[in-house]
From TrEMBL:
It comes from Pseudomassariella vexata. This is 5'-deoxynucleotidase. Homodimer. Keywords: Cobalt, Hydrolase, Magnesium, Metal-binding. SMART domains: HDc. Coiled coil: none annotated. GO terms for molecular function: 5'-deoxynucleotidase activity; metal ion binding. GO terms for biological process: deoxyribonucleoside monophosphate catabolic process. GO terms for cellular component: cytoplasm. Catalyzes the dephosphorylation of the nucleoside 5'-monophosphates deoxyadenosine monophosphate (dAMP), deoxycytidine monophosphate (dCMP), deoxyguanosine monophosphate (dGMP) and deoxythymidine monophosphate (dTMP).
Length: 238
């Protein structure tokens, strides 16, 4: 998603988001099929951060990011509800099917980003799932999404860490694909935001792998980022 600097830019609304879709979803249906189609939009949305940093070639979709997160959640510690963690990972970016992938560079404040995403989740839960089996699936989806966003429960803390772990994995994979021609070390700063002990260990393993890949060749690390990059990341990830 790119920043809109036009003074005449219209404020984001759910109506404006729906107009950008290839086809408006069928609303208030008793069938879950319109919801299934909406989920499919995530397969068409590329992760904007990589594009903004000039990564060449094919860029992962939001759906691919969520899928690997769910696979990582299979390794949830035994004290957590693994199924809930996996569901949380699968739907945590569902709002992006309407708002797009907003990054720290897009100039959208965190409160505004949250407003757009909450509005989108409410729309999906009410208008696409509200009449499906009495609305239970919509209520469940909205509750799990909010739990992830609030990040207070053990499952949501774990899932939020997985969001960062998946990013770190992709960072290293793109650097390897680019054969050290692209330094994506700015993304490594998210490792400092990981909370849970198990995920801190995974993050360190990934950073160690990256350090070995770069060897003695100069490359960016979290302690070499400029103040602006750190500020953007701090605001975005909290």
């Amino acid at each position: 998603m790119s920043k809109d600097t036009s003074a005449a830019a219209e404020p984001w609304t759910i109506e404006s988001a729906l107009k950008r879709l290839p086809e408006k979803p069928v609303e208030d249906s008793e069938s879950a099929v319109p919801f299934f189609h909406q989920v499919g939009q995530l397969k068409t949305i590329r992760r904007s951060g990589w594009i903004q940093h000039g990564v060449s070639g094919r860029i992962e979709s939001v759906a691919e990011h969520s899928h690997r997160m769910a696979c990582l959640a299979m390794f949830a510690p035994p004290n957590l509800d693994r199924d809930k963690c996996m569901r949380m990972c699968l739907i945590h970016d569902l709002a992006e099917s309407l708002v797009g992938d907003i990054t720290p560079r897009d100039g959208v404040s965190k409160p505004e980003k949250q407003r757009r995403e909450m509005t989108s989740i409410d729309y999906i839960a009410k208008r696409l799932l509200g009449n499906v089996q009495g609305g239970a699936h919509g209520d469940d989806l909205r509750a799990i999404w909010h739990e992830f966003e609030e990040g207070k429960t053990p499952e949501s803390k774990f899932a939020n860490d997985l969001d960062k772990i998946e990013l770190l994995l992709q960072m290293v994979e793109y650097e390897k694909r680019e054969e050290r021609k692209k330094d994506l070390g700015e993304f490594g700063y998210v490792a400092t935001k990981v909370q849970t002990p198990e995920m801190k260990a995974w993050a360190q393993d990934i950073l160690d792998e990256r350090a070995q890949f770069w060897g003695k060749e100069a490359h960016a690390r979290d302690d070499t980022l400029d103040a602006k990059a750190k500020m953007q990341s701090d605001e975005y990830y909290g």
